[in-house]
Fold:
Amino acid sequence: MTTAEIVRMTLLGDMTRFYNSKAWKNVRAEARRRDNNECQLCKEEGKHSKCEAVHHIKEVREHPELALVLSNLVCVCKVHHNREHPEKLQKQKKKFENEERW
Structure:
């Protein structure tokens, strides 16, 4: 996958295609192996938790040339990934809450 293809995907808003690509899956697996499948941010805090996401240190939309560069990737848990991307939490639909209780 070339940088030009990644740029095109970001412009079209087609990041699903990028994240489903074989190139991404391979580099993501390599990052997990390198980081022993552990959240590196928890590790810095003296904690231990499983890697639940491979995070781009510099975002793909701003730096597509680094999208598949191993040194731009870090394994993180869900908590730390949500801290890095709080805007993605706001996009999630809230569950219907019925105040009336029987």
